[in-house]
Amino acid sequence: MTTFLTILFVIVSLALVVLVLMQEGKSAGLTGSINGMADTYWGKNKGRSLEGKLVKITRILVILFFVLAIVLNMKN
Hints:
elongated
């Protein structure tokens, strides 16, 4: 069982790294502050976009990562 959990932990870790690298940066710099309200449509529908899905999947993987880390630590 420990071997299976360790393999799952490594897979989740690698998937988490890939998903974080695929996401856009949160700071838009000076351009973002000038545009201001121009992105209101994008902001309202961000959860339905690819970026929104990546954020949701990342949150799920982070929770799974911490649960697996705790379980694997309790096993030892």
